Structure formats: C-alpha cells, structure tokens
Records
---
Amino acid sequence: MPNHQLLALVNGREAIPVRAIPYITGWSISPDAIAKGLARSEGAPFRKLDGMSAFHFYGNEPTKVLPKEWD
C-alpha cells in the first residue's frame, strides 16, 4: 500500500488502517477505545466495533488479528 493511499483491500473489501481511526473520527474514538473494542472487552466504550476485525499483513497476505491479541 503506497504511503499516499488510505484504503487497502483486504479480502476484496476496502479497509482503513486502525491507526487512522482516531484521526478520521476527530479523536472521538481513542486508540485505547479501539483496542478495547477489538479485544471484545467488557468495558469497551464503543459497541460499534462488534463484528469488526482488524488485519495485519504477513508478507502480502492479510492475517486476522484475534481479539485476545488486543488485550
């Protein structure tokens, strides 16, 4: 993904980097809240992340980041 592009394709769907979410939302969602939401934490302030997954690239292949990895 070139540095000037925000979107990436993951399994045929457009995705944004997790690190961009606070910036895109005007910091209404903090990095800590994102991590708690993706960890499916009981105290997660944003239930909107339910059903969403994060991926990281292992080589050129997207690999799902498991909720337990966000703890």
---
Amino acid sequence: MTVRLGNVLYWLGCIAAALCVAGGVAAGVAMKLGTNPYDASIAPIVGGSIAAAGIIPWLIGRACKYVLSGQ
C-alpha cells in the first residue's frame, strides 16, 4: 500500500513541477510581449525563476517515492 502511495505522490510532484515550468514559460512570454520595456528586460529572469521553482515539488515527490516505496 505504501508503494502505491509513494508512486502517487511522486506523480503529483511531477505534475506540479510541469505546471510550474509551463507557468514560468507563459509568464515570460506574456512579459516579453507586453508593452512595458522594463517587463520585457526582466522577462527571462522572472520566467526562469518560476520554471526553476518547479524543482521543489519534483524533489518532494521524489523523496516521498524513495521513503515510501524504496525506489
């Protein structure tokens, strides 16, 4: 039973990480295409930071999978 729970938590972490990456890309593109030149200059930093934050839920899910299922 704990093996399944570990796998489910891992996949939820992967989904959350994918949503962070997609959100970061969307935020970067939206800022780049906007009319404010300040937003356009920092768009890669903001988008990259949001996308890089996706590693946190992935690591939490990976840790849950390792602890609960031993994989």
